[in-house]
Amino acid sequence: MTAKFSFDALKKAVKAGEIDTVIAALVDMQGRLQGKRFHAQHFVDSGWQETHCCNYLLATDLEMATVQGYEASSWERGYGDYVMKPDMETLRLIPWVPGTALVICDLLDHHTHQPVPHAPRSVLKRQIGRAKEMGYDVMMATELEFFLFEESYPELFDAGYPDPTPVARYNVDYSIFGNSRCEPAMRDMRNALYRAGIPVECSKGEAERGQEELNVKYSGGLETADMHVLVKQCAKEVAQSHGLSATFMAKYHTDKAGSSSHVHQSLWKAGKPVFFDAEAPNGMSELMHHYLGGQLAHAREITYFLAPYTNSYKRFCEGLFAPTKAVWSLDNRTAGFRICGEGTKSIRVECRIGGADLNPYLACAALLAAGLAGIEGEMDPGPEAAGDIYKAGEVTEVPKSLGEALGALEGSAMLKEAFGPEVVAHYARAARWELEEQNRVVTDWERMRGFERA
Length: 454
Description:
single chain, alpha+beta, 19% strand, Gln_synth_cat_dom, nitrogen fixation
């Protein structure tokens, strides 16, 4: 069997006893897979047509609390159903789980059967459709960083998440020997994802103890987001099978580097990259300049979708490779937007602002919306920044807090036009709830600081 297969192939695999479970999964606001495990025979008999879920799944926080204040889902509205419509183009084997296939579902309104506008997959599909109407195909890739720890998830949970023990004891960035302690789990991840039809390129140690990076080949925008959520699912489940744990927090420790999810982007037409112009300086076409100009102009407005939690903003600090300035530069890792592949057909925009905790559908949609606005407005990105951009003077800053990013989100006319005002309001409520919870909860830091001395 191939990793990504047709419905007919699934039927044959079920009949042969090779597949006994089909996971039907939606993507929630946090970028996690939620859904049901079907007996495979029931799925091929009827479940493939549609199933249903409670609409609170797009109105909860990380802890699955039923957050109030959403227009689309509340106690007043009775928490009705959404239709989960399997996208059969996403049907694939999940090799890290025996006898299992998975399909990603779109969410539809239970009464009208129209796409739920604030569902992450709907948000991205709308922007990809907008690009298509302008004549462009969207190509993207996401790089994911995460930490591997020796303790299991239950061990850490039961102990209240004390300092976990990194699998690597020292910085093993690029070290082949140093990363060998992580390799049993990383090898299983690479191989399982590849067998699932996800074109893994490589993995490597990153710039902190126990930190890993896993890279997947670029693809269409929607498929890139689909693969991203499966990479995270696989990494956690494979780590769990090895008695380890993995975290995609943007910043798990005060004194350690954060984990990012850089997003690479380019537009194509008729199978050719339109960001490339062999006659232009650095190979950057006029269209690419406009696209980049839009992302710079709207960088603060879209930051919430790249950094959705209060913890996300603790990653933005000098000297640890996370950007603090929304400027562009050629092959410079201190810039918020780095131009990669200059002078070649692979030239692209790499946004370095996003953390590993982002929702890939929302992040890709926001970046695309800003870039397309730049093309429509023929925006100029301005001159390239150079040198140590942490020390740059009067330039646009990446928001320093979730509250600052929320203000920019709510004031964004561009996003309200691109996503719809109701979608912006929905995610603004999610941001506000995160801030309300941060302000409500007493932290270990506060107790340590003030228990005796206050």
